[in-house]
User: Which sequence fits this backbone?
């Protein structure tokens, strides 16, 4: 790959953090609490750990094949045909995932803020912005997102702090009143979204500058931990505020912001938090789009890995319109099918490659 | 216009002057030197042909020597020369020969020539020229040129006396504390003002000649050791394009060498103040000056610097930091206030505190236009007023400003075209945009207000969010002379952040070079 | 329905306007890939505009997986009262 850009390990971890937190903060708490009730935070710990394991596979592969993306080293490890085979679900889920992110934005906007606007406007604008940003390259993305994510997190933290008087910590108890199954259910769900999506970074880690590769592992784990912490805090605060009933209403953080009343002036500030959250989803969509275009370009052995960005974005726009015919149907799909879908598309190929690589390296060692 | 040895740093030899003339259109093929003939009449004919129909061109024949038998003539431009220098050389030559050689000796031109060529001339800036085109250029630069019969060289010396403005207070960059010297239109004086502040032999100045009919001298300077060598190389590569263009102002140079012509954001900074230039040079920037222009250009210019003023460094650290934060808020207001108003009143009224909301609804009652058009009209009026205010001739000035204030303020409200809240907003936006120290950056923010208003009217907060995201994206990809425009915020360089939002005390800032973000890898301009 | 067609048309035109000058400089492989993706986009547009449920990839997935998914889901939910 000539003319490759490179970013530092810190920037890569930031992108990772943005990716994991971006759309999760708004979409995760409600369904999770619906499944796991008060113990939602336990589920997050479990699925976060699984995420950490997956991350370690990703980092291991990155170390074994420095400078190569997933598609490239998979070709080396298991050959072209198996790569193609593995890539079909991989790429298709990338499409699905990106469409999912935008669908979440669409549904959010049409259900709460601007319900008269047709959905395609939101899909179009978000994906247009994502495509243009991704075209600018990963360096530009890293630079932009640091500003946006800082602002976004500030808002989120302010919201949590402002709600301090309304918390009921007793809602957190009792722990596991119904056994472990709800916790597992929640873990299953949050593994599907967002923790298995760690795998997307197999395509992107190769962009880190060579000089920083040692720090990379540390910073990536840190980013994952930070993400886990933020999600757990947000879930815990939601439970403390609404109790187990939080699961009944979607978009917990938004509901949060609606209720806050402080200093007489700051009330009903949900629009601000809504914008912050949309920005988060936009960032995640941009990263996903970039990874997707890169994967497709490498699979088709194209020399220019940016030219396909706009058609792919267009397809995703159409997918968002087609897949989201009904909000409840979509939620059901996400809850039930996604964890399986993601296991086949993301987890399985990576695990396979990790295994193959490990065996090969053992083989080299012994010979 | 000055030439030769009086400028520190520029090469003072004649040969450089003549070699840079090769691209000129004096009717000569590049590279050939048209010699000066020994026959006075031939020279006279050539000169008169060249400067036919120039009424301010003066041809003064005179004689010298025993019995005034030898001929010579002086030529000069009456409008360029200082009056008392006209007879300067002539009278001294006429006296000289009879005194030097002695009474009664035969004086020939040969003796004359030997004197000049061997002894040199004691007059300050005299030169010997042996080709015709250089002589013409010297004439155009305000020199007095003397042709002597029988000699194939001519004497030329400086006599320029064109008036320039005195050094006064800066017009556009007033400060409360701090030096009040501003640059004028004379290149030599401007460079002098800078060089007196940077007493270092490492402060290098290089000159280039523009082309075409104006042949303006463009000078750029930097401090060797402070400037990033890659930036300098990139700058030199780009400034080569200046050579055959007619440069009338530094702004022409800016457009020729900037990274992105279509961006609303300026990539270089302008200043009138030598103290700002000196500080910038120490920071590793390159200054560009141009004969006949009072503005000095600093490259590269980053976004953060557009919001900084030299006064920040002359005031107390805390005050300066707070002022900077105030300016940042002013920028945000100037950019987004109308759009926020439109978005809130049209799409998100619940965000406005109820008391204020009632006031707004009350004020907007009876206004025929929706918020967007109201805002658009008022902003448009404001821009008209601002532009008219700049072009006003002074006698008319006060009348128009009274009318403007009355019309836009009171009458519009009374007529029901605009609500008082809107007028307040527009005024606030205008004032906020004037706090930006750099004029061309303020224009960028004012300009971007309008698309943001449109997109906020269409899609409310969502649209505003994405409008701002697009602007941010543009800023992130913009480069100034290869340096990332948003450094040191993005890419993040924590050590330089001391000078960005806050102004850390001087003892932290003086670890030189101050802004090390200059020393970063450069990306070439595309295409 | 008309507005859907119009919006999609605008999107296609914008994208093509931006990319066609760039495509001219690229090679056959890129053009083929681009064309292929635009065809897929066209296929989906027709699906969207005309409200017919045309076969899509995720349907395959849904079919294959939904049974297993339901089972797991049921198992996990069974513990809840």
Assistant:
């Amino acid at each position: 790959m000539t003319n490759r850009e490179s970013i530092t390990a810190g920037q890569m971890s930031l992108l990772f953090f943005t990716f994991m937190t971006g759309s999760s903060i708004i979409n995760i708490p409600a369904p999770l609490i619906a499944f796991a009730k008060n113990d939602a935070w336990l589920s997050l710990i479990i699925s976060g750990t699984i995420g950490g394991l997956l991350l370690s596979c990703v980092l291991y592969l990155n170390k074994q094949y420095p400078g190569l993306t997933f598609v490239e080293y998979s070709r080396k490890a298991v050959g072209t045909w198996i790569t193609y085979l593995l890539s079909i679900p991989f790429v298709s889920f990338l499409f699905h995932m990106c469409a999912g992110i935008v669908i979440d934005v669409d549904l959010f906007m049409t259900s709460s803020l601007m319900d008269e606007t047709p959905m395609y406007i939101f899909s179009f604008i978000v994906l247009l912005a994502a495509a243009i940003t991704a075209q600018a390259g990963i360096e530009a993305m890293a630079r932009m997102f640091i500003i946006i994510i800082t602002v976004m997190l500030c808002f989120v933290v302010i919201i949590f702090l402002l709600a301090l008087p309304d918390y009921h910590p007793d809602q957190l108890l009792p722990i596991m009143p119904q056994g472990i199954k709800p916790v597992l259910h929640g873990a299953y769900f949050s593994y599907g979204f967002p923790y298995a999506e760690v795998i997307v970074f197999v395509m992107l880690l190769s962009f880190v500058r060579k000089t920083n590769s040692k720090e990379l592992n540390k910073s990536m784990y840190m980013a994952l931990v930070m993400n886990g912490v933020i999600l757990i805090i947000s879930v815990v605060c939601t439970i403390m505020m609404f109790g187990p009933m939080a699961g009944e209403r979607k978009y917990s953080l938004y509901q949060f912001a609606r209720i806050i009343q402080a200093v007489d002036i700051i009330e009903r500030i949900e629009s601000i938090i809504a914008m912050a959250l949309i920005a988060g989803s936009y960032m995640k969509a941009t990263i996903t789009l970039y990874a997707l275009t890169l994967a497709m370009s490498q699979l088709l052995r194209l020399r220019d890995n940016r030219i396909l960005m706009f058609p792919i974005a267009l397809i995703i726009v159409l997918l968002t319109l087609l897949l989201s015919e009904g909000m409840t149907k979509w939620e059901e799909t996400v809850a039930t099918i996604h964890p399986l879908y993601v296991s086949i598309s993301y987890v399985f190929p990576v695990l396979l490659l990790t295994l193959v690589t490990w065996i090969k390296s053992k083989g080299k060692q012994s010979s | 216009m000055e030439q030769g040895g009086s400028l520190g740093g520029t090469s003072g030899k004649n040969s450089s002057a003549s070699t840079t003339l090769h691209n000129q259109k004096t009717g000569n093929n590049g590279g050939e030197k048209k010699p000066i003939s020994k026959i006075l009449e031939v020279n006279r004919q050539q000169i008169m042909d060249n400067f036919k129909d120039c009424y301010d061109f003066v041809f003064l024949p005179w004689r010298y020597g025993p019995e005034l038998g030898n001929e010579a003539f002086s030529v000069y431009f009456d409008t360029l020369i200082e009056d008392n220098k006209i007879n300067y050389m002539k009278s001294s030559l006429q006296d000289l020969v009879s005194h030097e050689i002695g009474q009664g000796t035969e004086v020939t031109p040969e003796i004359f020539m030997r004197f000049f060529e061997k002894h040199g001339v004691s007059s300050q800036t005299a030169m010997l020229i042996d080709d015709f085109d250089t002589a013409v250029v010297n004439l155009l630069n305000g020199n007095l040129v003397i042709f002597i019969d029988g000699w194939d060289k001519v004497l030329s010396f400086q006599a320029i006396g064109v008036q320039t403005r005195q050094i006064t207070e800066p017009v556009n960059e007033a400060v409360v504390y701090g030096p009040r010297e501003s640059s004028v239109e004379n290149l030599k004086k401007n460079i002098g003002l800078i060089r007196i502040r940077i007493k270092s032999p490492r402060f290098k100045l290089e000159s280039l000649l523009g082309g075409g009919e104006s042949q303006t001298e463009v000078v750029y300077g930097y401090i060797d050791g402070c400037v990033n060598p890659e930036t300098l190389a990139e700058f030199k590569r780009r400034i080569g394009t200046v050579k055959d263009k007619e440069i009338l102002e530094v702004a022409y140079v800016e457009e020729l060498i900037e990274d992105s012509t279509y961006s609303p954001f300026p990539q270089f900074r302008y200043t009138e103040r030598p103290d700002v230039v000196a500080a910038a040079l120490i920071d590793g920037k390159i200054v560009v000056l141009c004969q006949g222009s009072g503005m000095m250009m600093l490259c590269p210019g980053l976004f953060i610097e557009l919001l900084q003023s030299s006064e920040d460094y002359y005031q107390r650290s805390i005050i300066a930091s707070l002022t900077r934060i105030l300016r940042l808020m002013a920028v945000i207001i100037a950019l987004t206030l109308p759009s926020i108003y439109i978005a809130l009143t049209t799409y998100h009224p619940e965000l406005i505190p109820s008391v204020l909301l009632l006031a707004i609804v009350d004020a907007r009652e009876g206004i025929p236009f929706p918020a967007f058009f109201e805002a658009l009209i008022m902003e448009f009026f404001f821009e008209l007023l601002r532009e008219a205010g700049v072009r006003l001739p002074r006698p008319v000035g006060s009348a128009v400003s009274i009318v403007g204030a009355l019309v836009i303020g009171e009458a519009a409200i009374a007529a029901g075209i605009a609500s008082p809240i809107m007028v307040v907003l527009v005024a606030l936006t205008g004032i906020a945009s004037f706090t930006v120290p750099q004029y061309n950056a303020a224009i960028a923010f004012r300009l971007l207000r309008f698309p943001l208003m449109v997109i906020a009217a269409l899609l409310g907060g969502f649209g505003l969010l994405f409008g701002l995201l697009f602007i941010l994206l543009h800023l992130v990809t913009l480069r100034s002379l290869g340096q990332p425009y948003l450094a040191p915020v993005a890419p993040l360089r924590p050590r330089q952040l001391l000078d960005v939002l806050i102004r850390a005390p001087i003892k932290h800032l003086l670890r030189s070079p101050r802004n090390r973000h200059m020393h970063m890898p450069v990306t070439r301009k595309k295409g | 329905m008309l507005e859907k067609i119009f919006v999609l048309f605008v999107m296609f035109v914008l994208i093509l306007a931006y990319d066609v000058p760039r495509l001219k400089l690229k090679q056959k492989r890129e053009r083929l890939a681009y064309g292929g993706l635009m065809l897929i986009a066209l296929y989906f547009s027709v699906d969207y505009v005309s409200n017919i449920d045309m076969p899509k990839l995720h349907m395959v997935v849904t079919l294959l997986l939904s049974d297993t998914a339901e089972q797991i889901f049921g198992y996990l939910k069974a513990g809840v009262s």
